[in-house]
Amino acid sequence: MANTPAQPGKLPRCYDISRTITPTLAVWPGDAPFSFTHTLRKRDGSSVNLTTITLSPHTGSHADAYYHFDDDGQHPDQMPLAHYIGPAHVVTITRQHGGIVPSDFDAYDLANLERLLIHTWVSDVPDDDWPDDFPYPTVALIDWLAAQGGVLLGLDSPSVDWFDSTDLPCHHRLRHHGIANLEYLALAGVPDGRYELVALPLKIAGVCGSPVRAVLREIEGS
């Protein structure tokens, strides 16, 4: 998506905050990498090019569905769409590793916080590299977001829990509060501030998540 400045009579500037899905995009260790094959090609005489893709629902920038960590949780087609559209704050923090806590945001005015997108050094990691010692939210941070009426937490890290977690306390805490989450966003080059977020999961039944095309649009006067 073109990141062009807003001008009179023009559309507002947008930022594409999605990782590009290619066969070289790094995925969670052990997950299925993205691949595609051609089933039809124009150069072979077909009227169209037709491809078949194979990928994990957690490829690149994605939305977890609650079914990812709870057998009775919602699938992507059942997640609340309104959570993924609306005002969002992009905030850069200096934390390199470990749990992200509310005090990491003390320097910011986050009034009317609905959707929090956390920008860390992970946004600068190349798409073909994999970070496994990334900063991650804490239960305290999720409770803090919920207390302000937050409905979505977005990260450039690949998980809302630490890499080796098996009980996934932050995933479960998000569901407890009815908060949706986005993971593995690409926030490099996006100035901190308030935007309109659009990052819809695909309407897929029965699976554990969905890739998203996550976009931020500048809000006039913000």
Folded structure, characterized:
With 222 residues, the chain is mainly beta. The chain has one domain: 3-Layer(bba) Sandwich (Glucose Oxidase, domain 1). Helix content is 8%, strand content 25%. The strands form 3 sheets. A 9-stranded mixed β-sheet has the order 1-13-11-5-7-9-10-4-12, with no helix packed on it. A two-stranded antiparallel sheet has the order 2-3. A two-stranded parallel sheet has the order 6-8. Strand 9, helix 2 and strand 10 form a beta-alpha-beta unit. Helix 1 packs parallel to helix 2.
What's the topology here?
Elements: E1 14-16, E2 35-40, E3 50-54, E4 62-64, E5 85-92, E6 99-100, E7 115-119, E8 136-137, H1 139-147, E9 152-155, H2 169-177, E10 180-183, E11 193-198, E12 209-211, E13 215-218
Parallel strand pairs: 5-7, 6-8, 7-9, 9-10
Antiparallel strand pairs: 1-13, 2-3, 4-10, 4-12, 5-11, 11-13
